[in-house]
Specification:
The protein has 102 residues and is mostly helical. It has one domain. It contains three helices and two strands, in the order ααββα. A hairpin with a 2-residue loop joins strand 1 and strand 2. Helix 1 runs antiparallel to helix 2 and helix 1 runs parallel beside helix 3. The protein is elongated. The protein starts with a helix and ends with a helix.
Length: 102
């Protein structure tokens, strides 16, 4: 059973769904930078997680991961940077819009 995958999807799916609704409604001026931040976070995660996993600082039970890897890091590691890269710009947009109202 792929426990890490299920845990990652339990976080990623609702966060991404809500965030994408907010970002799509916000328009290109918010959506494009959000997608850019996701790309940067995924690349950074690929580099740094590969180092962390490759050096043995962090290890994964091979029976609990899907088996697909980007570099040395399992794909499950990428759910959280994607969720953060979508959620933070969406929250920034929502909170900024509320604060600017008279």
């Amino acid at each position: 059973m792929t426990t890490y995958l299920l845990l990652s999807l339990a976080v990623l799916v609702p966060v991404a769904a809500i965030s994408l609704v907010v970002l799509l409604r916000a328009g290109r001026s918010v959506l494009v930078p959000a997608i850019g931040s996701v790309v940067v976070l995924v690349v950074a995660t690929a580099v740094f997680d590969s180092v962390i996993v490759g050096t043995g600082i962090v290890g994964y039970d091979a029976t609990r991961i899907l088996g697909l890897r980007i570099g040395v890091a399992p794909v499950e590691d990428f759910a959280y940077p994607v969720a953060a890269g979508l959620a933070l710009p969406a929250l920034w947009h929502l909170l900024g819009r509320r604060r600017s109202r008279p």
